[in-house]
Amino acid sequence: MTVPEETVLVLRALGLGDLLTVVPALRALRRRLPSHEIVLAAPERLTGPALATGLVDRLLPASAAGREVPAELPWTGPPPDLAVDLHGNGPPSHLLLQRLRPGRLLAYAHPDTPDIEGPAWREDEHERDRWCRLLSWYGIDADPTDVRIPVPATPSPAPGAVVVHPGADAGARCWPPERFAAVARELAARGHQVVVTAGAGEEATGRYVAAEAGLPADAVLGGVVDVPFDRLTALVAHARCVIVGDTGLAHLATALGTPSVVLFGPVAPRLWGPPADARHRVLWHPDADDAARPGDAHGREPDERLLRITPGEVLAAVADLPQPHLPQAAGATPG
Known about the structure:
Layout: E1 7-11, H1 16-21, H2 23-32, E2 37-42, H3 47-52, E3 58-61, E4 82-85, H4 91-98, E5 105-106, H5 127-137, E6 162-165, H6 177-189, E7 194-198, H7 203-213, E8 220-222, H8 229-237, E9 241-245, H9 248-256, E10 260-263, H10 269-272, E11 280-283, H11 304-307, H12 311-319
Parallel strand pairs: 1-2, 1-4, 2-3, 4-5, 6-7, 6-9, 7-8, 9-10, 10-11
């Protein structure tokens, strides 16, 4: 095997949605440094998704509780030629990468790491824009709208289905399952095939939604473990639409160009929502004086703004979506 002469280490030890929001930044790095090996430091469960983007050569397992910075990185061999901090803004991630002695470190400026000369952090900025702005400051052109990932060769388990995903990694972003069930029941009554997806540990929620909607047991995909990423991606790529909260599957629909209805609560869609596109509808009911982050995105209870969304609104948004574009040939990036 030919060993790349130079290596880029990218730190983004977070979840699926976090990975997909930095696809534009990863693509910019790949375009600027085509002969480099790009290594992504991220949780091991994201190996499939990271490689599926076509922008990462290998994954370096790295994780921590919540959204914390990993205590260490299992890096071996010579120091990376370039390290890029796409994890956050602060000394923990900066120092973690600096300990590897990279040839160069790209990161946001912070007063507690004054040796790093980077751009100023902006709290009120969309996640895609944030990381593209970082690279652009260092002279690497990055387009935050360049979000697409390839469609896999795997056949969809339910072509043309409406995909309902009731789970999220925090209760604050979980719309009540009985409301998902009401939406699924009505869509099935209107003649749609409805599939309920569940991440690892979400089996009970997925099965509750399916049962209350009158769907067969095999309408639930996942739950005990995650749906294999190639199968999940094929399902979403060939779906009629996706109905989901502010979580990873929403970003997957964006990355594949699949119509979606995304429900927001504690965080404004202008910080984490899909690009402005007729294929995507966002539902959010903030108070008139709400800031961009009016609630706790990691709280245990559903956010009050999320609870203001009704099943009728979701059904109306689904009816208003355009027909999905047919995915291109397997392995191609959808247009």
